[in-house]
């Protein structure tokens, strides 16, 4: 039997005849699931909602039915175009109605809903009715957004973490690594490392350490270790890594989470500290100086090997920590002298003594300076004494050599070609070397009665005043950069000298400004001549460069024109003639430049 045109229409939910029980169950289901169903009648352009829809929209259900335009007003303005476009495509293209959008309730709340619907069509496939449901998914959406925000925060923390954070599968494959880790292993991008064996990056000599913490993590044990890692580009680093098990929701260990930091600088510092300690021990035990410390009862606390050797020789037995440093075997005078030194130091006084004696070991004369310094605890109480005996035997021998060397140095200074003068702050000479006569013709006595400014060129006075002022403000022993200025020779001529001045005003042995200068007149004249030639050559180059540009520009233009290939044979020949003329002109200009340069440069 043939169905009537509208036999398949679904009657509105308000049609009488539905069982009260079914209606109650439907209402409870909608309330429990935060659901609502809706029906659109395209023939009458009406919209019907169930009580669940009104509950979601926080509305009074007595206003049903409403027109479609009013129904769309409950869709969030930003989602309205999406909703209308989706309805249009469902009706015109026959696609499934499946839409997620936001609704705005009568109280202004925004709710997320997910809607599914079916279209009822007539024999001509024209839509007559659409029946659907939608569910309030606001809580799920907000939970998802919260989870997404939390994941974003964790991701941000992970991405910005300065240490290497990585996830490794049970079989040792790198699953995930943050940017800091990728940088540590010299990976240009994640694809260079993800999916690779981590063990390939570990120095083979340290592989057992890495494998231990990885296997511990797979057994549920968190542990740490150090190992050397070799990056993808070959750089080796020391790493300190902590590995912990990563479990799923059922408590099964599915991977290993590791936090690794670069401790290369720390390891280098530790190695340096060890080297320093060993060097210090080598220095302390390798010197001929004696180093020891004692407590308030004159018992040895610590000492280097040379002191133990001396003390053992004097005692006749091997010396060790805890022994008394007061030795009776060398006589009462020796005993009392050193006991006095120790008591003086233990009373809180820091001092030094000079000892000259015949060594009982080498039987040679020795000279020593002995320093005594109290040892104090945190409460500033004296708990012991630190002693240091410096061998100055060689120093005393070299003192005589120094005196002889000083005589030789004085002879060199007095007979050298440089002049050495000591000036006071006002420029008056306190000392001048005899070489002043060779350089400027004056005698030493003449200069000692003169001031620097008496024979200084007037144009250089201001600069020299400033240099004498500047040198007084630099650290003792420091010098100002060398400076050239003019001084009048005894014969009346002006001589250029190069001068370096040094601040030794506060030096007890000098007490002035040391001026070291020598004659550079010929060099200054040569430099001046060269600079004059350079200026003339620059002028020629600047002038001739403008002359060269004209024929050069014509040549370049003619070449470009010929290269285009648009000229007739006759035009091309004329262009070549012009090109040759410009080249000859350019050749003439170059010859002229060469001739002018030769006139400027003096052979």
TrEMBL record:
Keywords: Kinase, Phosphoprotein, Transferase. InterPro entries: HisK_dim/P_dom, HisK_dim/P_sf, PAC, PAS, PAS-assoc_C, PAS-like_dom_sf, PAS_4, PAS_fold_3. Residues 97-149, 223-275 form the PAC domain. It is an enzyme of class 2 (transferase). PROSITE patterns: PAC, PAS. It catalyses: ATP + protein L-histidine = ADP + protein N-phospho-L-histidine. Its EC number is 2.7.13.3. Residues 405-471 form the PAS domain. NCBIfam families: sensory_box. This is histidine kinase. It comes from Leptospira mtsangambouensis.
